[in-house]
Amino acid sequence: MTNYVLVTILLSGLVTWLSRVVPFAIIKNLTVPKWLIDFLSFVPVAIMTAIFVESLLVYHAGQWPGFNLENIYASIPAILAGVLTKSLLAVVITGVIAMALLRLVGWG
């Protein structure tokens, strides 16, 4: 490994670490308005929804997206687990097991 690659890796790690630590250090000494906290509380839900919907669609250049039926079928029990348990761990485990079973029976 050359020095250039090593320095690049170390600086990338430093920038990644700083971009995660500095906002907490700055906001620690500030009073954040309630409306901003309320607004930011929706960010994780929006991000998870975007990731979820994106995984259900298949991109076709110049056409409308199609559906990834394997992911749709596996998401049904995962959604039910989320509604029933309100546990992210239960959703993830149920989704992984559902996908494994779909692939086991050859639907994927």
TrEMBL record:
<keyword id="KW-0812">Transmembrane</keyword>
<dbReference type="InterPro" id="IPR008407">
    <property type="entry name" value="Brnchd-chn_aa_trnsp_AzlD"/>
</dbReference>
<keyword id="KW-0472">Membrane</keyword>
<keyword id="KW-1133">Transmembrane helix</keyword>
<dbReference type="Pfam" id="PF05437">
    <property type="entry name" value="AzlD"/>
</dbReference>
<feature type="transmembrane region" description="Helical">
    <location>
        <begin position="79"/>
        <end position="102"/>
    </location>
</feature>
<feature type="transmembrane region" description="Helical">
    <location>
        <begin position="39"/>
        <end position="59"/>
    </location>
</feature>
<protein>
    <submittedName>
        <fullName>AzlD domain-containing protein</fullName>
    </submittedName>
</protein>
<feature type="transmembrane region" description="Helical">
    <location>
        <begin position="6"/>
        <end position="27"/>
    </location>
</feature>
